[in-house]
Amino acid sequence: MSHNKKKIGIIFDLDGTLLDSMDFFMHDIPKEIADYYGVEFSPLKQEKIASLLLDVFGGQKGGGKYLVVKVMWKVAKRFDVPWHKRFKFLKITQDIYHKGVSKIPIIHGVEKTLDYLSENYNIIFGINTTGSYIEVLERFEGRMEFLERFSNSIITRDRVKYMKPSPEGIITLSNKWGIPINRVVMVGDMKSDINAGKSAGAITIGVTSGFYTKEMMEEVNPDYILSDVTQIPENMEKILKKML
After folding, report:
1. Per-residue pLDDT for 70 more than 90?
2. What does pTM read for this prediction?
């Protein structure tokens, strides 16, 4: 039975929030590239790659269509790949990406958490990601039932004019659902997610299951900081009070 009759909208980022993507992007892809080129994938090199991934994914403002290309071009530099060989490098990394992207695991407990929230609150779920719609489908190949929870409420870069940190995607879903923005929650693992939520006037939840540590998230100052999405149910009463 629902604890709250008024509709609530919860919008999630994808990578690092619903999907446990960090190992795939920060370790698996760079490691396979290193093996392909026969170079050492040292802890120091991994740390540098993690840093540049954070710079690119965290500092994006538009231009998301070529985000993966930007990342891989910078990774090529880290591996000292000569510029005239970088196009082949991009092709190789693209192949590695497509081979593994559908195997990125859903964060443990997320599915049960969404089921619990659906059963106990009048909630509509949405996704707001900088990936394209095709990229979202690629991530869930063979497990499309997960996306059924979000119906037609998936905002991707090809469905808005401006991506996060623009509030456009959040406002679009708020209007689509007919839910006042003060009853909409934006959940994400990066500054762009939180800033988008703040700009829209939504409640913001920062999770530390992705790129940002707790200390980094504290600097962004969301309304709530949780370790991951599974902590939302135990904080729902606090969130509801903030909506009053």
Report:
1. no
2. 0.88
φ/ψ of 211, rounded to 5, equals -70, -35
The pLDDT of residue 1: 41
Gap between the Cα atoms of 103 and 139, Å rounded: 7
Q: What are 138-184's pLDDT values in tens digits?
A: 999 999 999 999 988 999 999 999 989 999 999 999 999 999 999 99
In angstroms, the CA 207 to CA 204 distance is: 10
Instruction: Report pLDDT digits (tens) over 13-37.
Output: 999 999 998 888 877 877 887 787 7
Residues contacting 109, CB < 8 A, separation 6+: 228, 229, 230
Residue 22 in tokens: 């960090």
Question: Which CATH code, of 3.40.50.1000, 3.90.76.10, 3.30.360.10, 3.40.50.300, is assigned to 8-20+106-243?
Answer: 3.40.50.1000
In three-state form (DSSP H/G/I as H, E/B as E, the rest C), the secondary structure along 26-86 is HHHHHHHHHHHHCCCCCHHHHHHHHHHHHHHHHHCCCCHHHHHHHHHHHHHHHCCCCHHHH
> Would you place residue 98 in the very low, low, confident or very high pLDDT band (cuts 50, 70, 90)?
confident
CA-closest candidate to residue 16, choices 54, 44, 65 = 54
Please state, as a whole number, how many other Cβ atoms lie within 10 Å of the Cβ of residue 17: 27
6 Cβ contact partners less than 8 Å away, ≥ 6 residues apart:
122, 183
Bridge partners, 225 (sequence order): 206
